[in-house]
Amino acid sequence: MVTPKKGSDMRAHLPVIVLLGASILWGLTWIPLKSINTMGIDGIPLIFFTYGMMALILSPILMKQFSIWREHKKMMFLIALFGGSANLAFSYALINGEVIRVMVLFYLLPVWGVAGGRLFLKETIDRWRYLGVLLAISGAFLILGGFEVLDTPPSWIDLVALASGLFFAMNNLLFRAVQSIPVASKIGSMFIGCFTLAALFLYAGVEQLPSGITDDAWILLAGYALFWLFVANIGSQWSVTHMDAGRSSIIIILELITAVISATLIAGETMSTIETIGGALIIMAAFIEALRTQDDDEPVTTMN
Predict the structure, then answer these.
(1) Mean pLDDT, 10 residues at a time, over the chain (304 residues)?
(2) How far is Cα 46 from Cα 48, in angstroms, rounded to an integer?
(3) pTM listed for this prediction
């Protein structure tokens, strides 16, 4: 009988460990975002600088792999558009909205994923997926106020949070549709897309570049971009390419759980009973979608 080596066990569990760490970073990302924002840097400029730094880092790799993806320029543009929009909307909603509400609305991903998969990839919808969609829609209905939503429309930040989930789902479909493009190139395209969109919003005068900002604020922003956001992106993307889709999807739900717990303990946020029920329904929908993809061999991509 051969005893397995500890080193091989560690390598086998490494993607799980890395994804757990990356998911926790994503769930806590609201903390540095809101901290930097309180130091005088508005949402759009904050996103412009952070994603600009990360785009600069990955640009050499993107150019080096040009010969691989040059036949898929349209798909790379769409990844830049949808992936960039997703990151922009997600970060902006976290900066300006209630963390728990934003994260729960963002996790309507199962609805958008099922709809997009059916429309664009001709994927079949089984009864479990129908159940997941029903639960997610019901949860969102409760969070947005139940039948009161018919009288009082959702806030603009609610719509941004919903849009971020929709854009991420579309971006995930694009990632799955072009397996021949290296993951590093796709991530680089996402970063450049987010940076470019933020630049366009700044040019349009939606928000202004900051002035009179302290050195501490710039150091915190650079540290967040290079040692938090960059690590979270690379860690999550690397991990999901080294494990089955269903398992990674379940672990990624830790992002939502981490955000809810941390926002409750640190920011003192609370949800009403009806909102809590709605959030529970959306989490159930996320688990159903994750469990039904246990046999799916396609790698998935996250927020990242």
Answers:
(1) 53 80 92 95 96 95 92 93 94 93 79 66 70 79 68 81 86 80 91 97 94 92 94 83 66 82 88 84 76 50 48
(2) 5
(3) 0.83
Q: What tokens were used for 216?
A: 């501490």
Beta carbons of 220 and 32 less than 8 angstroms apart: yes
